[in-house]
Amino acid sequence: MSYNKNTCAPVPPMGWNSYDYYNTMVNEQEVRHNAEYMAKNLKQHGWEYVVIDIQWSDPFAGEDNANRTQYIPFSHFCIDEYSRQIPAVNRFPSAKDGAGFKPLADYIHSLGLKFGIHIMRGIPRIAAHNHTPIKTHDGSTVTANMIASAYSTCAWNPDMYGVDATKPYAQDYYDSIFELYASWGVDFVKVDDICRHVKEPFYEKEMIMMARAIERSGRPIVLSLSPGPANIEKAHQYETFANMWRITDDFWDDWKLLKAMFERCEVWQRHTGEGNWPDCDMIPLNVLGWGWGTDKDKKRGWKSKFTKDEARTMITLWSIFRSPLMLGTDLPQLDDYSLSLITNDEILAMNKNPYQAFLNSDSSDDKVVIWTNDCPDDLSYYECYFNVSEEVQTVKLNISVGKDDNIRDLWEHKDLGASTTFELAPHACRAFKIRVTK
After folding, report:
1. What DSSP character marks residue 387?
2. CA dist 416 to 119, 154, 360, 388, Å?
3. Distance from first CA to last CA of the chain, Å, rounded?
4. In 79-200, which residue ranges form alpha helices assigned H by DSSP?
5. Statement: residue 30 has pLDDT above 50
6. CA neighbours within 13 Å on the CB side: how many for 240?
7. DSSP 252-295
8. I need a labelling partner for 406 at 20 to 30 A (CA). Which of 3, 134, 208, 273 fits?
9. Could you tell me the pTM of the whole model?
């Protein structure tokens, strides 16, 4: 590829995604409210992407659908004359008269932020069934059914057929949708139903078509692959064609899932950097799941089941590993503690560090897991301690070498000198920046 995709994401992207709180049900007003909160409270700490997740073209995936099913089989969601999904105007009013997401993207850009959307791999089934046209580079008449593969479908979402890369004009379809996204001002595209199955050549070829389409669009667009877990044997393909790829299935507020992430990060620790970011998934903080309500007369959603220590552990691991940081919550409802976690610049600096982090202990056997990352000044390094056991652990840290040596506690913003002894509660962590003179 002549296009340098790595310039799209020189550091791990940081932002907000609508899914963990709104499910399929987010609307324009809610997106604007979250963007406004980010611009006011989070932008100065590096948070910048506002991403609308799944089903934004479905006019029925709103509150009236909360008592039915998450994904409506053969939903007649909105498409344009070229079989491309467009926003449902009952949920995104500024998309009227063919404007698409451009007015909303323009507004988010005016706040100094970036705009992203979710798509499913493939072409809408309804377009294939109705033989609607696709846009071609030479004006040839080609319909959706001519490039679709009915044998390539998502196991959990019925909206799409795969695009068969062996068919003439298959690339034209992907070129046309990314051309449309570029005209809207899209900066980030999360593609679903593609990462977990990349062992299959069919899925891999669609990933390549998307990467080519982004190059041809003329706009830098971050390409994020989901859902995962990604296949480590395909690391080279991810690094060549994508910016982010999920190393896990959907991550939620469950300690078992968080503990398992230490092993996933260990597997992927040598594949971060230079525009390539293995993705630990969204960060489920504070309030979650409003869009999963089953009865309109009952309160929807829940408070994150993570303890304060577990939430801090999550932010610390994501940061030192250099995972993308995507908040999954309703930002205007953030409590003070959650806000303090995601605005600690000393912790977030680990996420932007240009060097790879590595595991300094055995996450399968040790009760205290240690991650380390060198700093560019050649004098400092980060070191994070995580208690993954169910008992209190005592840790002694001594670096006494020179008079200017220092252990900096990044969560407490304190200098501790050249040694410290501390206790770690179950599931708790400590994060340090250590300076050692030579």
Report:
1. E
2. 48, 53, 22, 24
3. 43
4. 102-110, 125-130, 170-184
5. yes
6. 12
7. -S-HHHHHHHHHHHHHHTTS-BTTBEEE---EE-SEE-GGG-S-
8. 273
9. 0.95
